[in-house]
Specification:
three-stranded antiparallel beta sheet, 248 residues, 15 strands, alpha+beta, four-stranded antiparallel beta sheet, EC 3.4.11.18, globular, Creatinase/aminopeptidase-like, 27% strand
């Protein structure tokens, strides 16, 4: 069941989202060759706690960290490590903050130093897919309008769209309804209504959209070892259209 949110509840979610925004704004200029994802983890956790919030993913279903740090062929749910990032890497940092019982969620891909033209295009098209999806998240539209816009743009640029990891509703719980893939047909799927709050978080791959899971039970990788990128916003559906609650 989709839980529609009141204006006051959306404001509360927005406050949690602003903690996540501060994390991403802080880390963006620091991502350079030599930094480790464990250092990024510590910075994010410090910011979350400083704001009186909690790092929601730490302990969530046994996940041990405040961030997911996914490098190169890792699509999502990578563990922070002490390995220094090197020039040419791309890294996606995902975090969820809980403030006063409400959640904010955003992932962002970052270039480490100079990256290849392929990596640059992958990141650009993934961000464009996010923006195109948000533009379709209008009251009265259907989720298929959102997902088909993402799929069409990704595939027309030669990239795959991951099917096995889903976007989701969010509020007091991390994975509320709707849970959905970023592929679909226009005019199909759940009707978008005012008061809905959910993520749009396309994960694009350089090659195959199929994935594998590492022995740690979390780390999701491209099956062919090629690059992946992801951008994610939490949005609220208002009468006049979508509000990006994690806008940077």
């Amino acid at each position: 069941m989709v839980i529609l949110k009141s204006k006051l509840e959306i404001e509360a979610i927005h406050k949690a989202c602003q903690v996540v925004v501060e994390c991403h704004r802080t880390i963006a200029p620091l991502i350079q060759p030599g930094i480790t994802t464990n250092e990024i983890e510590r910075i994010f956790e410090e910011i979350i706690l400083k704001n009186g919030a909690k790092p929601y993913t730490k302990g969530y279903k046994g996940y041990p960290y405040a961030t997911c740090a996914s490098v190169n062929d890792v699509i999502a749910h990578g563990f922070p490590k002490d390995t220094p990032l090197k020039a040419g890497d791309i890294v996606t940092i995902d975090t969820v903050a809980e403030l006063d019982g409400w959640l904010g969620d955003s992932a962002w891909s970052y270039a480490v130093g100079q990256i290849s033209p392929t990596a640059e295009k992958l990141m650009r098209v993934t961000k464009e897919c996010l923006d195109l999806g948000i533009a379709q998240a209008q009251p009265g539209n259907r989720l298929g309008d959102v997902t088909s816009a993402i799929q069409r743009h990704a595939e027309s640029n030669g990239f795959g769209v991951v099917r096995d990891l889903l976007a989701h509703g969010i509020g007091r719980d991390l994975h509320e309804e709707p849970n959905y893939m970023h592929v679909g047909k226009p005019g199909k799927g759940l009707r978008i209504k005012e008061g809905m709050v959910f993520t749009i978080e396309p994960m694009l791959t350089e090659g195959s959209y199929y994935m594998t899971i590492d022995p740690d039970g979390w780390t999701a990788r491209t099956i062919d070892g090629k690059l992946a990128a992801q951008y994610e916003h939490t949005i609220a559906i208002l009468a006049g259209g979508p509000q990006i609650l994690t806008a940077q």
